[in-house]
Fold this protein.
Amino acid sequence: MFPTLKDILASDAICYSAPAVLSGEDQLHRPVRWVHTSDLLDIGKLLRGNELVLATGIAFSDDRNGLRGYVQHLAEAGACGLVVQLGRRYTKKIPQPLIEAARQNSFPLVTLLPAGRFTDIAEALNAMICASRLKNLEAAVAAHRTFEEMALGGADPAKIVRQLAAMSQSCVVLENLAHQVITLGGTDLEQAFAFNDWEERSRGVRLASRLGRDQETGWLAAMVGTRGHDWARLVMLPRPCVEGDPAEDTDSHARMILLERGAAALALNKLVTTTDGALQRHTHSALLTRLLAHSITTQEMVLQASALGIPVEGRRLVGMVLRRSKDGDPQASDTEVRGLIEAAESAVLRLRLKAIIGRLDERTAGLLVALSPTGSGGAVVEELVTTVRQLHQPMGEGLARRREKPAQVPDQLIIGVGPLVDRAMDARHTLTEAAMAAEIAAYAGPVAQGHDRMAPTHHRLHDMRLRGLLHLLRDDPRLQAYVEHEIGLLLNYDTRHGTHLITALAAYLDQGRNKTAAAEAAQLSRPSLYERLARIERILGVDLTNRQTCLSLQVAIQALHAIRSDAPRSG
């Protein structure tokens, strides 16, 4: 970014000469690319635009038409102003025809008192311009390095756009070729956007080149992609303080450099990502993960979802989380999650629903489904769950079918469902509950999923009961201390003697203290079970006929199962 004429007049090199602006006050925002000292009347043919001319007036014509022609010549050549130093030709004031000509052309005309030599002033001003150009170059290199590292490091487009918005302090939008918003970034989205007419506004901004600025709106835009293979457009809106008058946006050069670097990073990212629909999935995934991480406000979430074509305001929302069981192959997690996302996308499309769908982590996919504010939301959720299960193809199923043993391939798909909510501000709540339900169902074992002979099609947090609660609290030191206090002596005994008394105790408690059923479940004879229960009473110093004692021990055993779970720990 070059210094403006206003910056030049306020600099130490010139302010001591008491600059007086006689015309063109509304043009002081113009950037100054270089400063020339010349009294040549035909200097205009040597200029390239945005230069400031310093003159003494010694060669100026006395003719009114000659002075007008001189000013006209400078204005047409693109000069950004004329500075006349008093003292040589004009001692106190410059000719009125010169002032009138400058005002007619809205051309900045400034006089200086003879307080310094022109050569010294020009040298200082050009040094100031060179320093500014060096600063721009350093900023361009830093921007190039930042975006290159992001693209090569695998940053998704949403992150690149947010970084660009932060560096430019502007609202930035990545849109597809149909002028639909893919993702966006900015600190003041409400002021910058009116999403209801975004497509119409965007279609009205057409640039002749791949990178440029629309003079009417002040929008900066860059095509994203390689020549002949463009797939998006990156738009940087004027800052709120200058949006009413785009001509005041004097920072456009520096912001244009940032925009160009950001577009290049997105193009490079696209070359690395070859999966169909990967860009949209990246955008949806980023929105869901930011929602769960509390790094986005409800207002921003509503605006971004609307930009993606998914209205959430005034709709009933439900969160869903899909995952495979904990026994899945870790090496195949990426393929598994991609399969989950594809099944969810196909199900939503088949049922003509609207949903934000994306990856939450290395094992799970999430959905935030926007339903009609009227009608039976529960029935729609049930139908969606059923359709996802029908469309999902677990790994290994094809092999089992070829071997004609499909019954040996259990469906390991786990679906957690959150509560139906009526407000956008509760979107995080329903998605969080769905994630908890899926995690508990995956790691807490069959008991947490209920005693029904037929496995449930989906899981809700309120169905998980005590086992689910203990699983959520498994990292709490107080729960761990409780387990050690209740059954620690028994666990230590089993370790020292190689016995499995804790298994016998669990069977006894799970069968409601029915010793016959417990012996059968533990595959022990009744005398053998009786002997083991008696030994447990001696080790723990408890009475296993006491209901409260048995309840405490059963809670401790279930807590032990939760603590020993290999679920990922938070943090």
Notes: The first strand starts at residue 20 and ends at 23. Confidence is low (pLDDT under 50) at residues 242-249, 395-410, 446-453, 566-571.
